[in-house]
Design goal:
Blueprint lengths: L2 H12 L9 H12 L8 E7 L2 E7 L8 E5 L13 H11 L3 E4 L11 H15 L7 E6 L1 H15 L7 E5 L11 H4 L9 H12 L22 E6 L5 H13 L4 E6 L14 H17 L9
Parallel strand pairs: 3-4, 3-5, 5-6, 6-7, 7-8
Antiparallel strand pairs: 1-2, 2-4
Helix pairs in contact: 3-9, 4-5
């Protein structure tokens, strides 16, 4: 681990220009510029549709084995798109040895809860309907996307769909009641978020729905029957307790859950691959986790 790298990242995040009066379109454009990372050499994206929504199919070098990664992007349920997260998704896919697909789920406030959950479930359902083996399918997501992964799994369980092989969750924003002690305890350590900022996302996304609803706050849900989970979170983020409690709920439900808390790093630190040693190491572990749980073959009808 590099203390110098972590300190430089923290300083860069704290000194990033603020846009307090930005419109929603401006915020989305600014988020895209900050989050987007380059694709690895040899990777390519292809426009597609999945679950009735636009999507990007992502082919990566070395993805020769059976399997597919369904990736759900972050952005507080308000920001981001399939295109903003192809760089990070590609890093996960390369390490897992499978191609990926990123649905462009609907965003709030135009499409509040449960629209994003419905889109995530529809994407997973269509993969299965196409003949993709659940044993050859893994899911991953970051921040709000990580919470949507768990929500989609809960909705799939409700509807009697088979579970995928495993899921990888980066810094899940999984408790929209904002009841985690870390939200206040780590306010000074976190260079990105505050309680007030999180509340803005919650208000826009829920539009009056109960924040304790299982599909809105999966860290509070009954997680019985879910597949193995790998949860990674930074020790310097206010959402630390979301990850810790999600892992605890999974364990209490007899779900195989691995929680990794990485010291000195912020929210979705994995997106700093190539810049932060901890990011590359964490992605390596995630790739081994996903590859290890993939089994069987993917057969596409037609």
């Amino acid at each position: 681990m590099s203390q110098q790298q972590r300190a430089a990242l923290d300083a860069a995040l704290r000194n990033a220009p603020q846009q307090p009066d930005a419109t929603l379109d401006e915020r989305r454009a600014g988020f895209a510029r900050i989050i987007a990372r380059e694709l690895p050499a040899g990777a390519r994206t292809t426009p597609a549709t999945l679950g009735g929504r636009p999507a990007l199919e992502l082919d990566v070098p070395g993805a020769g084995g059976p399997g597919v990664l369904l990736y759900l992007h972050g952005g507080g349920f308000v920001l981001g798109s399939d295109a903003t997260h192809t760089g990070l998704a590609a890093q996960v896919a390369v390490r897992a040895g499978v191609p990926a697909v990123l649905p462009d789920y609907r965003l709030a406030p135009e499409h509040p809860f449960p629209a994003a959950v419905d889109d995530a479930l529809a994407a997973y359902r269509e993969l299965l309907d196409r003949g993709t083996s659940p044993a050859g399918t893994v899911l991953a997501g970051d921040s709000a996307g990580a919470a949507l992964v768990v929500a989609a799994l809960l909705a799939a369980r409700r509807d009697g769909l088979p579970m995928p092989a495993a899921a990888f969750l980066m810094s899940p924003f999984a408790d929209l009641t904002l009841s985690g002690d870390s939200i206040d305890a780590l306010a000074d350590a976190d260079p990105l978020f505050s309680r007030a900022g999180l509340q803005e996302y919650v208000t826009a996304y829920l539009a009056g729905h109960d924040p304790a609803h299982a599909l809105a706050s999966p860290a509070l849900a009954d997680l019985r029957g879910l597949p193995p989970l790998l949860i990674q979170v930074g020790a310097h983020e206010v959402l630390l307790d979301d990850a810790v409690r999600l892992a605890a709920r999974a364990g209490a439900a007899d779900v195989d859950a691995t929680l990794e808390i990485v010291a000195g790093v912020p929210h979705v630190f994995q997106n700093r691959f190539g810049q932060l040693d901890e990011a590359d190491a964490a992605l390596d572990r995630a790739g081994r986790f996903l590859a290890g749980h993939l089994a069987g073959s993917v057969v596409t009808a037609g």
